[in-house]
């Protein structure tokens, strides 16, 4: 009878391109795993290089550094087996995981299923593997798969046919609001198909426009879930596999305090902000605080991600800025303890209008004058960003970006947009959820009608359908890829649907110039949803 297998699962962040730092972290974690009695230490997909390394993979020097790193790690495996993800270059480049043991690379698993949808571009960089690798670890036959391999039946079936009792899958699977339920259903199906227990280890951390949640899983051979790791938590997770019963047991895993969807989404946004700012070496951030709900939620997220001492809020009023906005912004800045400035931009706007007056002669006032206010704010905020070396956060949400209700070089100014993939109705839900932990956002800001305040008595609903209607249409059109006829058949006014669809299609040019932001839905603008700017399709 096989002995029990003790595993140490490294649910950590391994930043892209940080080969030396990642190697050092892996070595330190291997030492911890060995000291804790682990038979097998497991590290995420491409832990050496970080995921996704993109065109770093076409640089020979980068690939050489990764190969040298995995060879060096192999030399430190006395008494421990370790499965480490890395880009394997041997003429062709493979997305691989190496089993390190007794000072050498014992075997290498090549990723067989290369995803090329959504945010993934594996086929651009890698060649596919052709067989599932297995190995004996402390008397247990283990199959080794890389991420997408588990999403197709054949790689796991190969492991089972080779006699595997346990399948270990290393992953860099980005989070979205539907991902975890899909993962669990998939892993349950694979375990039942093969009879193998499954260890699913996932990367954690923010990388440009994606966030990885960790949320690693243990699934027994009968398909039941043995343990769930919390999302967005860095941890060395200990587990034990019993080959006799093909069951797994977690050893004192951390537990999420709040598993509601709002809690997980909020954690994703916080992690995205923190990692983007810290990995790019910025000392802090600033944002325009308008007295509206989008900038209020962005401020709360920034403070929770970075600490109040690294966040600056700026109110930039004009004649149209209400007392409610002024009071709400100041109240929130004081509650959260951030540096706060008020810069009156009315004189600057008037000077721009005076300079443009001869060229505007004979033209009536329109949205040009409204946009000029927004662009004046952008100029001021970018000046502060340059002077203080603080990255500017854009505060727009997905609903606005979808229909182009945003001003290029105005409120779209910023290097990172935390709410870019968050619909307006979800902004409200998150704001109310955040206030449960303390009054971060003044209730008056949440309850007020949304307004850009670029003219007298303006509200968003002057230009847009109510947000509950707008977001429902957008979700069907964007995430669901439904036709206008299908959306109308679901009970929506046809003319409203047509208007919303036109706005989405004709504002692609704006979205191409928008700041990156964390992907948190199943169809994010930018890296994932890529429509042509110039198109005759309506």
TrEMBL record:
Binding site for L-glutamine: 117, 173, 179
Protein name from the UniProt record: Glutamine-dependent NAD(+) synthetase
Residues reported in the UniProt entry to bind deamido-NAD(+): 371, 400, 510
Active site, renumbered: 45 (proton acceptor), 111 (for glutaminase activity), 147 (nucleophile)
Organism: Frateuria terrea
Domain of life where this protein originates: Bacteria
SUPFAM superfamilies tied to this protein: Adenine nucleotide alpha hydrolases-like, Carbon-nitrogen hydrolase
Gene Ontology terms for molecular function: ATP binding; glutaminase activity; NAD+ synthase (glutamine-hydrolyzing) activity; NAD+ synthase activity
Binding-site list for ATP: 288-295, 395
CN hydrolase domain ranges (all copies): 5-243
GO cellular component annotations of the record: cytoplasm
EC number(s) per entry: 6.3.5.1
Entry function: Catalyzes the ATP-dependent amidation of deamido-NAD to form NAD. Uses L-glutamine as a nitrogen source.
Family the entry assigns: Belongs to the NAD synthetase family. In the C-terminal section; belongs to the NAD synthetase family.
Region (Disordered), start-end ranges: 439-461
Alphabetic keyword roster: ATP-binding, Ligase, NAD, Nucleotide-binding
Lineage: Bacteria, Pseudomonadati, Pseudomonadota, Gammaproteobacteria, Lysobacterales
Gene Ontology biological process terms in this record: NAD+ biosynthetic process
Pathway where it operates: Cofactor biosynthesis; NAD(+) biosynthesis; NAD(+) from deamido-NAD(+) (L-Gln route): step 1/1
Keyword NAD part of the UniProt annotation: yes
Catalytic activity: deamido-NAD(+) + L-glutamine + ATP + H2O = L-glutamate + AMP + diphosphate + NAD(+) + H(+)
